[in-house]
Amino acid sequence: MTPELFKHIMRHQAATVVLITTDGRDRAGLTATSLTSVSADPPLVLFCVARTASAWPALSVTDRIGIHLLGEDSQELARRFSTTGIDRFDHPAIGHDEGLTSVAGAVAWLECRVVDRIPAGDHHIVLVSPIRGGHRGHNSQEQRGPLLYHDRRYTTITEPKEGVKRGETPAYGTETGGSQPYITGRQESPAVGVSGC
């Protein structure tokens, strides 16, 4: 399979958009769509980073990483952390809390300890163990859905409209029936793309 065909096929996968950050002397961050839960006991997650990513030198040596799952209204932050040649942290939504970068547009966050870094093709797989974390609960007045990346665009999910019956298959981009969410609100992404696998 050619790399071009592989990339084209993988564009059909919708993925959660996250910011990966490091702090301290080698502060760095990037936008990624490769976050995956690996294990609940012990808790483990992984993400992938291109070997050419500007944040890789810092990620390759740090022992602590922040993972911030972005909310549906955080396209600007996602674009910012995938743009080179700027101070990605110079934004009003970016703060610092207990020694870790905080992101106002995040629906959930994890502080993680690096367990392993595994070379994989033109990327590195970074396996991390969450130390602490938090999320905006279902009863939060500030509740918002996650930001997704699909077919080279940022998008969101919403609940189906009333009256749609389970099993109906409306046209693409509309509700899927029952209680299943559907992808909507597609936004063009910048030419720089999204880092990660």
TrEMBL record:
Domain Flavin reductase like: 10-156
InterPro entries: Flavin_Rdtase-like_dom, NADH-dep_flavin_reductase, Split_barrel_FMN-bd
Gene3D superfamilies the UniProt entry points to: Electron Transport, Fmn-binding Protein, Chain A (2.30.110.10)
Keywords: Oxidoreductase
Pfam family, one: Flavin_Reduct
Signal peptide: none
Swiss-Prot/TrEMBL GO biological process terms: pyrimidine nucleobase catabolic process
Domain of life of the native organism: Bacteria
GO MF, one annotated term: FMN binding
Disordered: annotated segments: 164-197
PANTHER family referenced in this protein's UniProt entry, alphabetically: FLAVIN REDUCTASE, FMN REDUCTASE (NADH) RUTF
Protein name: Flavin-dependent reductase
